[in-house]
Amino acid sequence: MVARARAKGLYDRLVTGELADFLAAEASAGARYDLVIAADVFVYISDIAPVVTAIARNLVSDGLLAFTVETHSGGGVKLLPTLRFAHGETYVRDVLEAAGLAVANLIAAPVRSERGVPLDSLVVVARPSTAPRRAASPVA
Where are the chain's structural domains? Predict the structure, then answer.
């Protein structure tokens, strides 16, 4: 997959490795980001707290983190039969708060299907809790 992406020549930089290690190296190098998107990433991570905390360290003061998770009606994290993780909404909110992030938007929406059945999911946008609130814009 990485070789195919590299062959397309569309990316400024492609990195392979452990996500937490990458984020720690970025923080050490002083990298700062306006926007971090993790679409369909956190379903492969049980405890997202270390990654979310590392992302929060790399966001500019009014930056945004947008991500998706599969979810379930309970609390905490649950390993699904698909071998992906589902994160409860309360768990997600607690992780964001502990990382110094505030929910800017959180909606339940099926972002993937499994054998034709939409899966319970959350689409989350968060910002540093000290950041000024941005005006909401309509989503097409």
Answer: 32-128
- At 63-92, the pLDDT tens digits run 999 999 999 999 899 999 999 999 999 999
Domain 32-128 indexed as CATH 3.40.50.300: no
Q: Spell out the residues 6+ positions from residue 115 whose beta carbon is closer than 8 angstroms to its own.
A: none
Residue predicted with more confidence, 121 or 114:
121
Going by pLDDT thresholds of 50, 70 and 90, the confidence category of residue 130 is: confident
Using DSSP bridges, classify how beta strands 33-38 and 59-70 pair: parallel, antiparallel or unpaired. Answer: parallel
Q: Is the pTM of this model over 0.85?
A: yes
Look at residue 114 and give its three-state secondary structure. Answer: strand
For residue 17, the 8-state DSSP code is S
130 vs 118: CA distance, rounded Å: 35
Closest to 62 in 3D by CA, of 139, 135, 133: 133
